[in-house]
Amino acid sequence: MSDMHVTHVEHRKPKPRARSERGASAVEYALLIAGIAAVLVLAILALGDGVRDLFQETCVEVGKTSISSSC
To answer: Per residue, what are the HEC states of 3-61?
Structure first.
């Protein structure tokens, strides 16, 4: 025969979030947004010249077949 023990688990109501916790969450979101913005800026700086050159080449090719050749 096995001994079975029933353990009582007390469930407590979660405490309402304090203002400081909400403020901390806001700071975390702000840091996340700042990090994403920094990555975007670095990507644009790294790829900017290549993208510009690609558009310039496209413009030249379209200009060859078009009446107006201004880009």
So the answer is: CCCCCCCCCCCCCCCCHHHHHHHHHHHHHHHHHHHHHHHHHHHHHHHHHHHHHHHHHHH
> What residue has token string 């407590």?
12
Residue 1 half-sphere exposure, CB side, CA atoms within 13 Å?
Answer: 2
Amino acid at 52: R
Domain ranges in the chain are 20-66
DSSP H or E segment with residue 63: helix 19-65
Evaluate the CA torsion angle 30, 33, 38, 44 in order and state its sign: negative
pLDDT tens digit string along 21-64?
A: 667 888 999 999 999 999 999 999 999 999 889 999 998 888 88
